[in-house]
């Protein structure tokens, strides 16, 4: 097991996060709120049927275009045979669960660090229920999206059960992906100019 | 370029989708609505800091547990240096854009097939704006999630501009991920029993 709390050189890490860099980031944003404004981006190309591929690399944040990534990330969506595909990749609603799991986890880890709580173990199990009559347009009363998503969190940390419960609730409320799912977020779809 | 409309043996494909298999699926669901109920799942394990990894394989749908995947898919969330990580992977809010891009695309392709429209090219560009004061808990009036997400779609298809615009609007309204983002979906976070 990796030590999640350590001092390397003059840098102190808690939960794998450089505590001074984190404090400096918070101070910089408090001093100039515009540094907190980020724009994330993806481009996606259809391949065939339920297969398509996203490329993710650049983003804007902390007042500038990021140039830290030597190469782009690529991810392939696919569908299982029961949804007329060949398992070319996980499907989009499954990738949403991955995004949600990761975001709640990172938000939890970040705020644990801010509270001085060391985490030993953290894992989550997600289940999302969906009725595909919505996607298929068979029943207008059925929402096309998830009906609900349930997350079970396994966690061991250096704090009381009460502190852990409070941190879980805080992470749920402050996770960007969880908030994007829980709250209505406007999405526009516009045709490209030729 | 792959031919997206083809007859292979006795199977007819449009946009890479087996049209008879699609019609059979719709007929089966109309006959038994419970076949449309799916449950997707992910498990995620924290690694360190902003790095964590999801495993996705099994799901329930069409009345049974799926067994079509020989191996699990795994995906790694990470964070860029400006967000205190080492680009271990794309970050969760970027994975959300990938999920959204793929879902709108697949929904578009599926309903184009249902309408007999052949697609030649389809790609999307997504931009999502977010203010990280929400995540950091610095200002309670700032939502932690995306403020808005804008999708630009490039598409060439065998139909009129009017049919294309109608299909775009239909795909936006019926995409499960788009609907999950646009509409408030309940998420629960519960601590695992020991």
UniProtKB/TrEMBL annotation, chains A, B:
Record-linked InterPro entries: KH_dom-like_a/b, OsmC/Ohr_fam, OsmC/Ohr_hydroprdx_reductase, OsmC/Ohrsf
Gene3D superfamilies: 3.30.300.20
Pfam families, A to Z: OsmC (PF02566)
The name this protein goes by in its record: OsmC family protein
Organism: Stappia albiluteola
């Amino acid at each position: 097991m990796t030590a999640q709390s350590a001092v390397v050189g003059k840098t102190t890490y808690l939960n794998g996060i450089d505590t001074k860099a984190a404090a400096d980031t918070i101070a910089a944003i408090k001093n100039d709120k515009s540094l907190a404004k980020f724009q994330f981006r993806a481009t996606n190309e259809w391949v065939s049927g339920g297969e398509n591929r996203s490329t993710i690399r650049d983003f804007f944040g902390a007042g500038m275009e990021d140039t830290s990534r030597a190469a782009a990330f690529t991810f392939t969506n696919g569908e299982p045979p029961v949804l007329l595909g060949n398992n070319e990749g996980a499907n989009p609603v499954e990738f949403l669960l991955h995004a949600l799991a990761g975001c709640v986890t990172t938000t939890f880890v970040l705020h644990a660090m801010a509270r001085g709580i060391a985490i030993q173990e953290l894992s989550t199990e997600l289940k999302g229920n969906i009725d595909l009559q919505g996607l298929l347009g068979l029943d207008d009363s059925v929402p096309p999206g998830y009906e609900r998503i349930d997350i079970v969190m396994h966690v061991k940390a250096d704090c009381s059960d009460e502190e852990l419960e409070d941190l879980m609730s805080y992470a749920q409320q402050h996770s960007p992906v969880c908030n994007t799912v829980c709250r209505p977020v406007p999405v526009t779809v516009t045709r490209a100019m030729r």
